[in-house]
Design goal:
Length: 215
């Protein structure tokens, strides 16, 4: 109690959605309040870590002692994450949009010209890229929001993205945007099912585990 177990550590956290412009007023995005990521940033800072929080567009206050970098798009988020390296640990909580418009309009598209033909291109996978980055953090943690076969998908995701841990988020219920979360922690040693809890309690528990792992 009162111990700052992450003093001297630098940890990068991504949080929130990304917004991918279609034109100057419309965008593509995933649903994400940013609450779990912000809670994790707060819990890590409370343990004494130097925290860089790369945040997509969300309406949340910056946790005390956290250095926040606001971004809009996945490409900006990738640049901000890379610029924040090196780090001892990265916790990638952001719900990054999988696609962006290949050619966003630089004005507002007029409705009367009909529905636009959008060409979408894939965004980079920031987590998977960081896993093979020359400055790869010692402990790389991804999130996986799933509605079915949650653990099975998370185990596969851990291997595919070469993350160390995946926090598998069961979003089949009402956790989206809410105060609570239901997660499983997938590590090389196996799968732990954590009791459903408030997002700040999940964040503190994860911060403790990160401190254990970084030693
Ligand atoms: O593949 P999926 O989107 O389910 O993977 C989720 C994990 O990957 C999260 O940790 C998320 O932050 C990260 N991710 C990413 N860049 C993307 C897509 C997902 O960093 N373009």
């Amino acid at each position: 109690p009162g111990e700052r177990r992450l003093a001297g550590r630098h940890i990068v956290v991504t949080a929130g959605p990304t917004h991918e412009p279609i034109d100057t007023v419309r965008y593509i995005a995933n649903r994400s309040s940013g609450r779990q990521g912000f809670a994790i940033a707060r819990a890590l800072a409370a343990q004494g870590a130097r925290v860089t929080l790369v945040a997509g567009p969300v309406a949340l206050a910056t946790p005390a002692g956290v250095a926040r970098i606001d971004v809009e798009t996945a490409l900006q988020m990738r640049d901000a994450v890379n610029a924040a390296m090196p780090a001892d640990c990265a916790v990638m909580v952001a719900a990054v949009a999988d696609w962006r418009s290949a050619d966003p309009a630089t004005n507002k598209l007029k409705k009367d010209i009909g529905a636009p033909d959008l060409t979408l291109v894939a965004n980079p996978d920031i987590l998977a890229e960081l896993a093979v980055h020359p400055n790869r953090p010692q402990l790389l943690i991804g999130f996986a929001a799933e509605t079915d076969r949650v653990v099975e998908h998370a185990v596969a995701k851990r291997q595919r993205k070469q993350a160390d841990w995946i926090v598998a988020n069961d979003v089949s219920g009402d956790v989206m945007g809410g105060e609570e979360n239901a997660v499983h922690l997938v590590t090389p040693e196996g799968v732990e099912t954590w009791a459903r809890a408030r997002k700040d309690a999940i964040a503190r528990r994860l911060a403790d585990r990160i401190a254990d792992a970084l030693g």
